[in-house]
Amino acid sequence: MKVSTLCLGSCTGCHISLLGLGEDLLPILSTAELIYSPVLVDVKKPGPTDLAIVEGAPRNEEDVERLGKLREKAKTVLALGSCASMGGITGLGNVASREEIKAEAYEEPDKDTPELRKRVYPIDHYVEVDWYLTGCPPPKKIIGEALTALLAGKEPPHYELPVCAECERRAELHIYEDLVRTIEKTPDAEECLLSQGYICLGSVTRGGCDANCTTAGVPCLGCRGPVDRVITEPGHGIFRDLVRRRAHLLGLDEKEVEDEVYDLVHTLYTFTLSSQVMRLKQSERVADEIYRVHLEPGEAI
Ligand code: SF4
Ligand code: SF4
To answer: Which of 96, 211, 228, 234 maximizes the CB count within 10 A of its CB?
Structure first.
């Protein structure tokens, strides 16, 4: 099978995670011929390809053009990582205007620096996507599983359960705990972080990472993106479900929790702020964040 890879607006971390497979790449490469990959091989133009693996979200016109050209040549497109699938970290650019971003990044913007697109969208805003493999970056284990399946003409495994299902921490009911961050207090090693007052997105986030962060004492930031129920059911959302769970574990009124948690909007949507799914959920107030910054009157997001 002919395989191509492409990096758009991103950190190349998903490619690094792919290469992190190390020796486990050998059986994959025995069935795959890497014909185009600006990060890995010196070939200038994409040719006909069976599988195109795309990392990152388009941030300028050149990104959009390269993505479109690769899609034309590809039978199957895999969005690799959270930027390609949901906007991810690249999508956080939507909370600032282009002028603000350039002023922050450059003392004197170079005249040759490509102009940014006004807003960031995941790649399925521009082209059809066949498969999504979320994570920032996706753990090498699930990249290996997905590639092995796709190269054999099968569907990649689908991780439906949340991170909580892979986390060995014990949920406890408490009387009120203040919201707390790990730089303020070291968490207990065995108890659920949400029970202890930390904001942990494990209950609303797709598993598959073996709860790497929570096992190490770091709350889940949601890098694998929302679980199916958040995507498909109108009554569920990242904000909405987290409010319910914190209220339940700590014996609080949901209204009270809403106000506390809403201050942490960038924590809730670090990886999903520019995703269409979250934007269309009114209960999530994601659209408010984007409107607040730079939506012109009458402009759709
Ligand atoms: S909320 Fe976080 S710490 Fe608690 S069980 Fe779920 S993943 Fe583990
Ligand atoms: S625990 Fe959460 S933030 Fe950490 S790797 Fe898993 S999904 Fe990503």
So the answer is: 211
Cα of 5 vs centre of ligand 1, distance in Å, is 34
**286 φ, ψ (degrees, to nearest 5):** -65, -40
pLDDT at 111 over 60: yes
Domain 2-151, CATH 3.40.50.10540 — does that match? no
Assigned token pair, 76: 């199957």
Per-residue pLDDT reduced to its tens digit, 210-246: 999 999 999 999 999 999 999 999 889 999 999 999 9
Single-letter residue type at 19: L
Which of 233, 244, 255, 264 is CA-nearest to residue 203? Answer: 244
The answer to whether the CB of 207 falls within 8 A of the CB of 162 is yes
Tens of pLDDT, residue by residue over 7-45, are 999 999 999 999 999 999 999 989 999 999 998 888 889
C-alpha 301/C-alpha 295 separation (Å) is 8
d(CA 105, CA 117): 16
Enumerate the domain spans of the chain. 2-151, 163-270
Which DSSP string do the residues of 196-251 spell out, in sequence order?
Answer: TT----GGGBB--STTHHHHTT-----TT-B-HHHHH-TT--HHHHHHHHHHHHHT
Task: Find the 115 Cα to ligand 1 centroid distance in Å.
Answer: 41
Two structure tokens written together for 49: 């390809």
Distances (CA, A) of 77 to 38, 147, 164, 232, 271: 16, 12, 30, 22, 21
Query: DSSP strand E in 119-206: where?
Result: 131-133
**pLDDT 10s digits, 84-110:** 999 999 999 888 888 888 888 888 777
Measured from CB, residues less than 6 Å from any atom of ligand 2 are 163, 205, 209, 211-214, 220-224
Angle between helices 254-262 and 238-250 (to 10 degrees): 120
User: Which protein residue's CA is at the shortest distance from atom 5 of ligand 1?
Assistant: 164
